[in-house]
Amino acid sequence: MTNPGYAHAETRALLVGAWQFQSKLIMDLVGPENDLAAMEALIRGQGASDVTVLRNDGVSRTTVETALHALGLRSKPGDWIFLYYTGHGALAEAAVKGTRDGDTDQFLPLPGFDPDVKDAERFIVDKDFYTWLSLYVPKGVQVLMMADTCHSGTLHRSVDPRAMGMTPRLTLGARNVELGSRPAPRFASVLASGDAAPVSATRDDLPNLYYISAARDDQIAWENALPVEGAPTRGFLTWSFEQGVTTPRADGKGMAADQDGDGTLSIGELGAYLNVQVRMLSGQRQESNTVIPPGREGQGLFATVPPPPAPPAPPPLPGLYVADLKARASVSGDYPWRILTDGQGADFVWDARAQAMLRRTGDIVAQNVKSAAQVRGVIDKWAALEALRPLLSERSARLMVGPLDNGARYPSGAPVTLALAPVQAADGAPPPGQRYATVFNIASDGTVQRLFPVAASDGKGELAAGQSLPVLDSQVIPPFGADHVVALVTPQPPDDFRLLLRTVENQRAAARLVGPIRDLLARAGGQASLSIGELYTGN
């Protein structure tokens, strides 16, 4: 939304993408080409006319620094700069260890990068970006920096090769990389001499920088065909950002990421929206991270008023691959999916002999699947979750799965706890008053099971301000797969919806819940929360 103090403020952008690396050590990618095109269309749709795009051979230390310096020269107080990169990310030994940034440097390997050559033109360290921003961007210009790359490389769960659709944006693996020396900034500061920034800056030195990364430092960032098999390959962060500003909210008005429905998308709201979307898209393997200067959570995004989102197009049918010809014949016909002849990138794989269903994330999402009816139950369940995913809002509460780290796979016999934890509003608003929680589970085969409130002692499901609700304390038993616990927090008790839950309990009826949940969120006018906790089990 336009700042009234800057009537002629503009939104500018530097968009950088690399997917062809000309290296035997670095795998080429597919998604960044699509990401870059999508981000250019999106930022121009947000009113930006000053957009610089660098890709592949055109990406080097010199070209990126030169473009950012030129953008700073053209910017004035009140403007926004969107600095975006899509491609590989990696870690290297820090040039100076023991600092507040730790003993490693996050860096972007650019086309032609060779860790043995140490050519500074072929890599950029995060501190380079911060130094350039501090020198080349005038005070009063807000910067949103977004990196859809890996930062490190640990995995909570392996990816099953029977459904290998995701590609990691991590290069060089665990190799110990030393980058060598880097040149000093090549241009004089565009700031007044009395305001000159330090020669070497950190993120904390920039009160005008809002930073969003695709993954935590201990995670891999992924790309996949989104939203279904056959769609263009995209990075999860970029896809979520595009969806958040181009998809309507549950009431059909405004941007989905504007979760309080006030017509302004704040940085805090955007960060919270991206976090929950990336978690869901990656099967809890990846969690985006947003760094906001203290007290700036409510800052509106960009300098121009965006156009209203268009109604979303109906999603295409998911692709199902079945290797066994007899089993394939049993699921061919009038069903809500497309039968594929190749399993690469399929939305679902049914391994009929192993009686297992796999999803494109490489997870076994259901076991003991023997019939077409059971296959349909699994696919209908995930269709319901996909319909609900754009509506997720952890504005006041988040469903937490424990005690293992988020994204872990729970082995047989492991204890499991579920808790509905209060969340500080992304825009810094005070915690809401009394709310009412409704919690239910969708089992791996799509069966609905009520969790709260169910007993007389649960009352109407009241949640006092700031109260954390223990939902479940249980133990993992077969069958294994993926359960999804859904938590609705509403300003009033949703009596009609709870009656529906009682009616469909112990039935494969997830699809019947989507419309009523959408209506509840629309009526709540931004005062409700929808959180989904994923629980993956199996040895």
Which structural traits does this protein have?
6-stranded mixed sheet, disordered N terminus, 539 residues, alpha/beta
Helices and strands in order:
Elements: E1 11-17, H1 31-45, E2 50-55, H2 61-74, E3 80-86, E4 90-93, E5 104-109, E6 123-125, H3 126-136, E7 142-148, E8 167-168, E9 209-213, E10 222-225, E11 233-235, H4 236-246, H5 267-281, E12 289-291, E13 319-321, H6 325-330, E14 338-340, E15 348-351, E16 356-359, E17 364-367, H7 372-388, E18 397-402, E19 409-410, E20 415-422, E21 435-442, E22 448-452, E23 462-463, E24 469-475, E25 481-490, H8 495-504, H9 511-524, E26 529-537
Helix pairs in contact: 1-4, 2-3, 4-5, 7-9
Please explain how this structure is put together.
- The chain has 539 residues and is an alpha/beta fold.
- 21% of the residues lie in helices and 24% in strands.
- The chain is built from nine helices and 26 strands.
- The strands form six sheets. A six-stranded mixed sheet has the order 2-1-3-7-9-12, sandwiched between helices.
- Helix 1 runs parallel beside helix 4 (236-246) and helix 4 (236-246) packs across helix 5 (267-281).
- The radius of gyration is 24 Å and the shape is globular.
- The N and C termini lie far apart (49 Å).
- The model is unreliable at 1-5 (pLDDT under 50).
Can you describe this structure in just a few lines?
This protein is of the alpha/beta class and 539 residues long. The protein has helices at residues 31-45, 61-74, 126-136, 236-246, 267-281, 325-330, 372-388, 495-504, 511-524, and strands at residues 11-17, 50-55, 80-86, 90-93, 104-109, 123-125, 142-148, 167-168, 209-213, 222-225, 233-235, 289-291, 319-321, 338-340, 348-351, 356-359, 364-367, 397-402, 409-410, 415-422, 435-442, 448-452, 462-463, 469-475, 481-490, 529-537. The protein is 21% helix and 24% strand.
